[in-house]
Amino acid sequence: MLRATYHLKSDSKADASAKARDIAREQTVEVPEDTAPEVEARLVGRIDSLEPDGEGRWRAVIAYDPVIVGGDVTELFNLLFGNISMKPAVRLIDLAFPESMLQSLPGPRFGISGIRDIVGAPARPIVCTATKPLGLDARALAGLCYRFARAGADIVKDDHNLADQPSAPFRERVARCQEAVERANRETGGRTLYFPNVTGTMSGFAERLEVAARAGCRGVLVNLLPQGVDAARVAGEHGLVVLAHPTMSGAFFGTDHGIAPDVLYGLLYRVIGSDGVIYTNVGGRFSYFTLELCQGVNRRLRAPLGPIRPAFPVPGGGVDAARVEHWMERYGNDTMFLIGSSLLRAPDLEAATRGVVERVRKRT
């Protein structure tokens, strides 16, 4: 059984029990009791336990039959937090997958070890940067890619809001940026990768993946919530590394309602096929995250999980180049550091990036 643990805000066990029963039914058969007794007996969620967990809060473990999901990652999200997302004071805080279900989920195609092999970094942290801002033309963005690659960054990704705007149309941007990175690699002997943002229309998603792959890109950036969570699996099936962006995910991070960040990023984004998961680091420009939350995400992404490969945690959103040693000490080598704004502000972008790369490469 797939076991989901929820925090329920309630003043009494009777009320908490009623809420748990409502979740178990609403998330599965979604009909009143005795509407379809035979189906209900098989598929209504089972309440495994209900215990107090602080004043006015209860911890409910509900078991779901994995047959409801199969290998459909969209249905996985729907089962765990679909209709109940519209009911107050329900928060998904943990998941336990049966081994048989893990076998049916895509998981990362490359994961930590696969990305390390591609960039030629067997042990150290990975350096990732971003091209921005929106509004630069494709030539200017390619120029940034070239300088980042000349400096030895491992991955240069599009900013998540670069789509198909007139200033830098998708096809032109991908061609120019990939060529710039390849040129820099030829000059330096480096192995920098360029990951374009492929988020966009559903009808054009497969075509964008094919454009990226034909250009020689080894991976892509996907905004999973706007694009659709199954996009990670589809991109992986095109043989591309999947870097998941967290845009819109903050809507889940209420105190008493939503999905815990370590569950969303560290479990769900991982099992659906993300090879690296970007999240907003503590101390950056997003105030929600604490060091404890960030470390919880890191643990979930790296922990053993049956056949599911570990994925890279990618702290970003304000990781300062000057403090990269600090974060390496806190998070360890199996981390991809996304460093953007502090490099773009530097008087000499290439020199500033090379300085970070050199400090990271000393850590083995």
Describe this structure as you would to a colleague.
By secondary structure, the chain is of the alpha/beta class. The protein is 41% helix and 19% strand. It is built from 15 helices and 13 strands. The protein has helices spanning 13-26, 37-43, 73-81, 99-104, 111-119, 138-151, 170-188, 205-215, 224-227, 231-237, 261-271, 291-302, 324-331, 341-344, 349-361; strands at 2-9, 46-52, 57-64, 90-96, 126-131, 155-158, 193-195, 219-223, 241-245, 258-259, 276-280, 312-316, 336-338. The chain has a five-stranded mixed beta sheet. The chain has a four-stranded parallel beta sheet with strand order 7-6-5-13. Strands 8-9-11-12 form a four-stranded parallel beta sheet. Helix 6 (138-151) runs parallel beside helix 15, helix 7 (170-188) packs parallel to helix 8 (205-215) and helix 11 (261-271) packs parallel to helix 12. The radius of gyration is 22 Å and the shape is elongated. The model has no long low-confidence stretch (mean pLDDT 96).
Strand count, sense and barrel status of the largest sheet are: 5 strands, mixed
Taking Cα atoms only, what radius of gyration do you get, to the nearest Å? 22 Å
SS summary, helix count = 15
Inertia-based shape:
elongated
List low-confidence stretches.
Answer: none
What's the N-to-C terminus distance?
Answer: 41 Å
Q: What structural class do the secondary elements suggest?
A: alpha/beta
